Amino acid sequence: MPNFTKGTSPVVQQALKDLEEEPKTDYLNLPPPVRYEDIQREVMMALKPDVFEGLRFEITRPLNQNFFLTHSLFMGNLELPGAATGSKQMLKVPVGTYEFGANLISEKGHFALGRITTDGRLSGRLKYDFADWLSSRVNMQLSNEAGQSQVMGDIDVKGKDWNGQLKLGTPQFLGLNYFQSLTPSLSAGGEFFWLGGQLRSGLGLALRHTGQQHIATMQVATTGILSAQYAHKVTDKVTLATDLLYHWASREATATVGYDVTLRQARLQGKIDSAGVVSCYIMERFAPGINFLLSAELDHAHKNYKFGFGFTAGE
Amino acid sequence: MGITSSKADTAPPPMPNFTKGTSPVVQQALKDLEEEPKTDYLNLPPPVRYEDIQREVMMALKPDVFEGLRFEITRPLNQNFFLTHSLFMGNLELPGAATGSKQMLKVPVGTYEFGANLISEKGHFALGRITTDGRLSGRLKYDFADWLSSRVNMQLSNEAGQSQVMGDIDVKGKDWNGQLKLGTPQFLGLNYFQSLTPSLSAGGEFFWLGGQLRSGLGLALRHTGQQHIATMQVATTGILSAQYAHKVTDKVTLATDLLYHWASREATATVGYDVTLRQARLQGKIDSAGVVSCYIMERFAPGINFLLSAELDHAHKNYKFGFGFTAGE
């Protein structure tokens, strides 16, 4: 490289020195990227806490190292859109459900989880790795009512610096996605989906940039969505994240800003968005294995307020 | 010779001695009877007010359950005057019939209420609250003398026909008390309560509603002991109610309540507890209509309380949960 340092500012000289010292990018040995579905995962974990309304009570009971049962009780309100009952106001109906679950997890990373509720809805997830580079997953939601059941199967193929996925589902869903590392910090990819029943299809492109303290992603899709996310790890206890979602067909945009703080005894997540929704979620560890949850969501635009608390016992 | 009488002859004869040949239990009971101070029927303790007959039981059995979030701050400005800020965001229930469906429906609401309270050392007070909906409520209390006090309770609103004012005049005697209540629209009430023995008191009430041309008469009885309070009330409105509260220890009170409507032949029984711990106060109850409720007030720090409230109505499948904070005394 020619010597540019004579006659330039100290900032430029420092930048050029860093450039020489930085290890050269070996484009044949790029690290494998995350899966296409997980591009936005860090940001979603900070910005989409599991807010609920009412009481939630969960017990997790291990029977042996690989098998555990879960008992889940939820008593709260379901929302009926105002239009359904002919009034503008949001209406809520109280419901109570009990869900029993059984989970089998093997050391190699295979698992089979099942859940059944008192309404008769059964949901299951299976994961099986055929080889290092080939794994499959099945996700099922079955119900007594006609037309309410859904099954989705994935096959993941993992290469050295790329990964691809094929998704097949009912009724008549086909999806394909591919993600590739371009540099050690930048990866890009695309996806395609087709819905037979409604005769819709779409194409999407995504970009992801990771640094030591940040993750930035951007996605564009032919369904008319442009989304950008940024998550910044301020310290190892505090993460700040922000999200912008733009529908170019209806020219509507929503921006969200949120935080995720992990303290010794508690985990706090909160967010506020441009549609006037403020939400907060606290998980506090009262004793080893016993967590107390508090959840609040205030939608000032629609004057809809949801509050809930709960307990989870077991790991 | 005339008839002579002397004071000694008019005194009652001494009690015969029954202790010979009776069991030790009877002997102990007779001994207690002799040692117990004789009831001085001219110096009975004053009874509680008629409105407060059921107060101990109600405090244990009717905790302030709510649904949603409640946030209250109490701020004293000086010794006698303090402000309250009260925020409530939760659900109001619409009876199913109003919207044409059998299920209970809830509508979310949010209200902020500002209050000002003036309390004097002599026990007079003036409290006012106003909400963002434009509803103003006020309570005034003034004691004219030791034996005569008055109270006014007002709930005013912008909407027509929604305002209500109720005034009371309390007269307190040595072992009795009486009250006159006048209210809008066209309400007249009268009640009287008298101590019969140091532990038993009885009384009655009468009310008249002009607008609906209804009137009623009620009778009440109250028995207190060192560890219990039992009350019973009968009214011509068709209600018979009985309550019992038992103070098991100074931290735990158990209470029960029976309400019987003899016109519709329906009865509801409730059992509840009230436990006061160092850092928390727990109240719970279960009743025969299938309603279970629980209320916890936990003291996180001096002046800061955390509330948790739950009410499960299994019969109607209606579940209400709430949490909140109160700050200040």
UniProtKB/TrEMBL annotation, chain A:
Its main location: mitochondrion. InterPro entries: Porin_dom_sf (IPR023614), Porin_Euk/Tom40 (IPR027246), Tom40 (IPR037930). Coiled coil: none annotated. It is a multi-pass membrane protein. CDD domains: Porin3_Tom40. It comes from the Eukaryota. It is found in: Mitochondrion outer membrane. The keyword RNA-binding does not apply. Keywords: Membrane, Mitochondrion, Mitochondrion outer membrane, Protein transport, Transmembrane, Transmembrane beta strand, Transport. Pfam families: Porin_3. Belongs to the Tom40 family. This is Mitochondrial import receptor subunit TOM40. The lineage of its organism: Eukaryota, Viridiplantae, Chlorophyta, core chlorophytes, Chlorophyceae.
Automatic annotation (TrEMBL), chain B:
The keyword Zinc-finger does not apply. The keyword Membrane applies. It is found in: Mitochondrion outer membrane. One of its GO terms (molecular function) is protein transmembrane transporter activity. Residues 1-23 are annotated as: Disordered. One of its GO terms (cellular component) is mitochondrial outer membrane. InterPro entries: Porin_dom_sf, Porin_Euk/Tom40, Tom40. It comes from the Eukaryota. GO terms for biological process: protein import into mitochondrial matrix. It is a multi-pass membrane protein. Keywords: Membrane, Mitochondrion, Mitochondrion outer membrane, Protein transport, Transmembrane, Transmembrane beta strand, Transport. Belongs to the Tom40 family. This is Mitochondrial import receptor subunit TOM40. It comes from Tetradesmus obliquus (Green alga).
